[in-house]
User: What shape does this take?
Amino acid sequence: MKKVLFVCVQNTCRSVMAESIFNSLAKEWKAESAGVEKADRLDDTAIEVIWKFGYSVDKERPRGLDEVNIEEYDFVVTVCSESCAAIPHKNVERWNIEDPKGKDIVIYERVFSEIEKRVKELLDRIED
Assistant: This one.
């Protein structure tokens, strides 16, 4: 099975949202996520928004890039602009999505909707 890795700063919000949406919709691919740094726990509001939009979250804790073998992935998507610039992989796509962390839930929902749209577009390109 082909794999995509979603990367953000701490693997608490955006990359977790992308992973959840992708795995709910993909037929031939599997997504995982990681952060350039690793936080101690997932963002509660991000998890709430994922559930609110009808998706599930399998991830139990954030992961750092140092915990994954980036070469195992066919494709890497960075969902941040902050510190995600130098990902050492041949197939990297950069989305540059606002970090909702610590902001109003309305921002989380807007960010979630943008990620959902981009994940659907990505799946249209890479799956039959």
Q: What stands out?
A: Strands lie at 2-8, 29-35, 75-78, 92-94.
